[in-house]
Write a structure and sequence with these properties.
By secondary structure, the protein is of the alpha/beta class. Helix content is 46%, strand content 14%. α1 crosses α10. The two termini are 31 Å apart.
């Protein structure tokens, strides 16, 4: 949602559980942005009008994904809006006529925006019915993979502040194969989760529909929901289930029983949050500041807290009811750090509140371990992250690594492994455990520390 090109993109439906509502939000968001653009062009001095569109475009696009056809479509629409208003003002019509022209144009662009949203529904792949799990309830050893979003090895394990009680991950590390030099599988969630499940670095990822994520891997195009992929491989052998946020696991992988928590709300009011984020927060961010707008942050923080608390509540039953590969993408300690924030920061946007979020993530981790222990059955538990803490905290820059802690009934000789490992090699470890649930520590270490290979 970070740039305007996405409001034309059918891939927007990927991030919503309700695709039609998601597209409608996109359409009205575009309408609001165009309205602001039109009014701005009307009242600014003539010499500044020509600067408004290029400045707005720079603000809107993060340039990480490059220009696209939808982006160019928006440029054309914005240019037309600008020229129409500019010409109306130049002709020095009466105030009434100017106002009437503006109203007609706004209504016209509202219609255009709504049509675009409707057309996106037809362009998008319609979401199919949720598939019944093929093998999710098989009996046998459990392989639980818990990916804690933005869990940082430095601030979680290596430099945990002495003024805080030890977090659960510190204790878990003592009982695990602790890979202390594990490179992150990707720079952000859209890339790293696919990399961890297919076993290779993802060079590009783009949502193309409600259940379609297109990838570039080794210079070749492929979709995430095709083999090789540990979720599909486990589905066809030992059983697979997935619960997480951001990615629609329940739609993406047919036959894998799962639950999807939206990264963004499907409530129509979220449109105003996005618009406010663009008009207020992004200009501040461009100059290296954060306006800390309470209205914006309150909405986002409340949404994040709701997701985390519900996810935590579902963990025991989800693990207890499934066997085989159980893949959990945990929405914590990702910003905003709403769980256990420091005093004076109830919304969780102070970097120092990250430690409270890690502490709560540790509570979720302990719930997972306790549930596994109560089953009395063999299991392997893998706690890791999709990427490091991307913010600078106490002057420590992002480290480019993630925690990788592997424990369970088959780990009898825990210890630290300092050789370089790769986060995407998690897939190889899971494949090893699927084929041999009693794989030795040495076999696991070899799989994690193998060199990266281009497919």
């Amino acid at each position: 949602m970070g740039n305007w090109s996405r409001v034309f993109d059918p891939g927007l439906g990927y991030f919503y559980s309700d695709q039609p509502r998601g597209m409608l939000i996109a359409a009205y968001m575009l309408m609001a942005v165009l309205s602001v653009l039109i009014f701005g062009c009307t009242y600014l001095p003539p010499w500044t009008r020509w600067l408004l569109i290029p400045i707005s475009l720079v603000m809107a696009d993060d340039f990480r994904r490059g220009f696209s056809i939808p982006f160019l479509v928006f440029v054309g629409m914005a240019a037309v809006a600008f020229l129409l208003i500019w010409q109306a003002v130049r002709k020095e019509k009466t105030t009434w006529l100017k106002g009437g022209t503006l109203i007609l144009e706004l209504l016209g662009y509202a219609g255009i925006a709504t049509c675009i949203g409707a057309l996106s529904l037809f362009r998008a792949n319609p979401p199919g019915p949720k598939s019944q799990a093929l093998n999710a309830h098989k009996t046998g050893p459990r392989i639980v993979v818990a990916v804690f979003d933005e869990l940082d090895p430095v601030h979680t394990l290596e430099k945990w502040p002495s003024q805080y009680p030890p977090n659960e991950f510190l204790d878990l590390a003592k009982r695990s194969l602790d890979f202390t030099n594990c490179l992150e599988p990707g720079p952000e969630t859209l890339y790293s989760l696919p990399a961890m499940t297919i076993g290779h670095t993802v060079e590009r990822a783009k949502a193309a529909g409600p259940q379609t994520l297109n990838l570039i891997v080794g210079g070749k195009k492929r979709e995430w929901n095709e083999k090789p992929n540990i979720l599909l491989e486990a589905r066809d052998t030992v059983g697979a289930s997935a619960m997480g946020w951001y990615h629609p696991y329940d739609r993406e992988f047919p036959g894998v029983e799962g639950r999807f928590y939206e990264r963004v709300s499907d409530d129509p009011t979220f449109c105003f949050w996005l618009l406010f984020d663009f008009l207020v927060e992004r200009p501040f961010q461009m100059v290296g500041k954060n306006s800390q707008t309470k209205m914006l942050n309150t909405f986002y923080s409340n949404w994040q807290r709701k997701i985390i608390e519900d996810f935590h509540a579902q963990v025991p039953s989800f693990i207890d009811e499934h066997h085989g590969l159980i893949f959990l993408h945990v929405p914590c300690p990702h910003v905003p750090y709403v769980m256990h924030p420091i005093p004076g920061d109830p919304l969780g946007f102070d970097p120092e509140s990250y430690y409270g979020a890690v502490d709560y993530a540790g509570e979720i981790c302990k719930t997972m371990e306790d549930t596994l222990a109560k089953t009395g059955e063999p299991y392997t538990f893998i706690a890791t992250s999709d990427h490091n803490l991307r913010a600078t905290l106490h002057g420590i820059k992002p480290c480019g690594r993630v925690p990788m802690l592997i424990s369970g009934t088959n780990i009898v000789k825990p210890g630290r492994v300092n050789d370089q490992a790769c986060g995407e090699h998690l897939a190889d470890v899971v494949r090893l455990l699927i084929s041999n649930s009693n794989a030795s520590e040495l076999d696991i270490v070899r799989a994690m520390t193998a060199k990266r290979v281009t497919p």
